[in-house]
Structures are given as structure tokens and as C-alpha cells.
Amino acid sequence: MKICRFNGNRIGLVQGDEVLDVTAALDVIPAQRYPLPHYDVMIENLAKVCARINEVKGSAARLKLSSIKLDAPVANPNKIINAPVNYKAHADEALTDKQLGAGAAGKQSMFIGDWGLFLKANSSLCGFGDEVKLRCPDRRNDHEIELAVIIGKTCERATLANAMDYVAAYSIGLDMTVRGQEDRSWRKSFNTYAVLGPWIVTKDEIPDPHNIDFSIHVNGELRQKSNTAKLVFNIPKLIEYATQCYTLYPGDIIFSGTPEGVGPVKPGDVMRVDIEKIAAWDVRIARDYVR
Ligand code: MN
User: Fold this and answer.
1) Which of 25, 58, 160, 278 matches a 20 to 30 Å C-alpha distance to 263?
2) Residue 271 and residue 126: Cα distance in Å, rounded?
3) What separation in Å is there between the alpha carbon of 255 and the centre of ligand 1?
């Protein structure tokens, strides 16, 4: 299933160029009491929600995808976890381009196992219906397209053998980045710098997430093109690695890393992102910098 969030508080089942408004399916989520869970309760109950969607979709209103505003498909992640240097060719370019984080930080190792993972602020999350609002006009702002993995249930100390059991869905992530010397959690956490969308695709629709073509064009120019087969740490390894540090919760998002070809964007640009089995979509950058 392809499930989106739209127009502020609606849930949609995506079918071709249409969306069925299946918000009624949320009635299977148990009522919550204070203190509310610090993770996403729709993703926690995703199997039940999907079953209920099948019951309500027959009477759902149909809308054109082009007529709605797409929100981030996960409303309340506990964490946005990010993998650094997780494609070999991107690690190589990070050694030669001193504006990229590794060179700027003077790091020697280009192996993800020496770097750990890092977090983007949850407040940086936005959907494909939002415009990316660039900061720092005197600095380089880069696109990084990444396969995003959505965690489905609480997970501590995953193993390579059981890690995939904790995956609920996939999505497209844009890890927008200001280049410079500061910690990544600062340069990658401005509002709208974690773009997720256009929807989640449930795990059953992507039986092999390690052979997925993806690309990004900026204003029609190809910038990045790769395949998830080239991940240095694949998805089970990323989950096992993440749980050496964090407990994962339903709705946690793992940005799995970006391949070579990262490059600058500027106000008014259009980023055409395309990940096989998920979507091809235009993500827009606002016409002015945030001052
Ligand atoms: Mn990244």
C-alpha cells in the first residue's frame, strides 16, 4: 500500500494519480492518554490501519493527487536517524571535495563503522507538498537523495538476522545539507531540511530493498543516480548498528545514506526525485532564502 498524509490531518491511499481519503481507518488506533507516546501511533498500528483501509476504501472520496497538499507521511517520528558516507563513491568524493563534511572536519577514515550515525532535528521534517526553505545564502546548500526506512515496532539490540522484522515501510528522503564546519546535527536540521515523501510504501511492496534504482535531477540536470545494492551498510546492518546506540520506536526514520553526485541547489530550483517502486516527484525550493 502507498499511504500518504495530506491537507493537515487526512490519510490517503494512493492509487495511480488519485488519492482515496481513508482517514476513517484511523479509528482502529487506541485512544491515547497523557503522557502521549513519544513515537508515531499510526505506524505502531500500521497493520491494523491497513486492514481497516481495505474495509473503508470502497466508500472513500476520490481526489486528484494534484489537488492535495502532501504532508510528511510520518507525523511524529521519535528520531530521524542518518547514515554518513554509506556509498563508497560518495565517500571517495567526500575525500576530494573539501567542502563536504568529512574533508571539512579533517577526518581520515571514510568508513561508516568509524563514524556512527547522526540525527536530524525532528523539527526539520516536512513533506513533498512543502517547499524547501534554504538558509545561509553565502554557503553551499546540497541535495542528498536517500532511501528512507520506516521502523514499525520498538527495537533494542537488533541482530542482522531479525533486523528486517522491524521495518514497516519505505519512503524517499532528501537530506538537505548546508556545507561547513559545524556538527551535522546543526547544518542538516534547519526547518524543511528533512524532506520525506511523497508517501510511505509498505514493506510487502518492496520485497528486495537492496536492488532499487534511484536518481535526482535538478532543473532537468541529472545529479545523482545509483542503486541501493551499493549501500556499504545495508538495511539490516544499519538497524543493527543503530540499536547499538538507540532504542528504535515505531515511526523512526532511517535515512540510509546518499551516493556520489551531491551538489548545490538555489532558490527556485526544482528537484526531481525518483526511487523505483516508491515514486517520481518534483520537490520545490522556495524562491527566497530565509533571512
Ligand atoms: Mn545524508
Assistant:
1) 278
2) 15
3) 7
> Ligand 1 centroid vs 119 CA: distance in angstroms?
10
Tens of pLDDT along 197-227?
Answer: 999 999 999 999 999 999 999 999 999 999 9
- Rounded to the nearest angstrom, the distance between the alpha carbon of 257 and the centre of ligand 1 is 5
**Ligand 1 center–CA 18 separation, angstroms:** 31
Element (H, E) at 281: strand 279-284
Question: If you measure from the C-alpha of residue 185 to the centroid of ligand 1, how many angstroms do you get, rounded to a whole number?
Answer: 11
| Contacts for 222 with CB less than 8 Å, ≥ 6 apart | 215, 216
Dist CA 186 CA 193 (whole Å)? 11
Q: Are 73 and 196 in contact (CB under 8 A)?
A: yes
CA of 153 to the centre of ligand 1 (A): 24
Ligand 1 geometric centre to CA of 1 (Å): 26
Q: Is the pLDDT of residue 31 over 60?
A: yes
C-alpha 2 to ligand 1 mean position (Å): 24
H helices present in the chain, as ranges: 41-44, 46-56, 88-96, 101-105, 112-115, 184-187, 235-242
> Residue 58 — φ and ψ, nearest 5°?
-60, -30
**Ion ligand 1 neighbours, Cβ < 5 Å:** 144, 175, 258
Count of other CB atoms within 10 angstroms of residue 90: 24
Question: What superfamily does domain 80-284 belong to in CATH?
Answer: Fumarylacetoacetase-like, C-terminal domain (3.90.850.10)
pLDDT at residue 101, as a whole number: 63
d(CA 170, CA 191) in angstroms, rounded, equals: 22
> What's the pLDDT at 98?
75
Mapped onto helix, strand or coil, the DSSP state of residue 241 is helix
Distance from the Cα of residue 120 to its chain's centroid: 11
C-alpha closest to that of 92 among 108, 104, 110, 116: 110
CA distances from 165 to 61, 147, 149, 236 (A): 33, 18, 12, 9
